[in-house]
Write a sequence for this structure.
């Protein structure tokens, strides 16, 4: 057990944040993400630095454990990445409207070009 520097509450060392006041207990948070099979053997490491110069560093690691490339972004850009990657909410009404529009377009195209006629340009 250690004490939180922010509130003095006792916290376990494995905790990333103080359960009492939510203060970050580590200066650097690291998460590894294995690659898609097309980039097998590689990994993405995301390091979040919570020091006086908060930033997020993305690094690409190869299978030998070497960094191939890295880039750091500030917290504003990191938040943009997070928003970009957040799963989009299903929009059933918008989707069905889009599908109806597509179906209408297809049937209009079919009737205007005649049956089984292919165009080559
Ligand atoms: Zn605390």
């Amino acid at each position: 057990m250690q004490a939180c520097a922010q509130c003095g509450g006792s916290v376990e060392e494995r905790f990333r944040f103080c359960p009492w006041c939510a203060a970050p207990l580590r200066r650097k948070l690291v998460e590894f993400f294995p690659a898609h099979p097309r980039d097998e053997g590689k990994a993405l490491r995301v390091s979040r630095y919570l020091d006086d110069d908060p930033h997020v560093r993305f690094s690409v690691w190869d299978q030998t454990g070497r960094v191939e490339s890295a880039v750091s972004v500030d917290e504003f850009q990191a938040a943009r990445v997070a928003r970009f990657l957040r799963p989009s909410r299903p929009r059933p009404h918008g989707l069905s409207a889009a599908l109806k529009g597509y179906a209408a377009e297809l049937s209009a195209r079919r009737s205007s070009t005649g049956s089984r006629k292919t165009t080559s340009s």
Observations:
- The first strand starts at residue 2 and ends at 3.
- The chain has a mean pLDDT of 85.
- DSSP finds two helices and six strands in the chain.
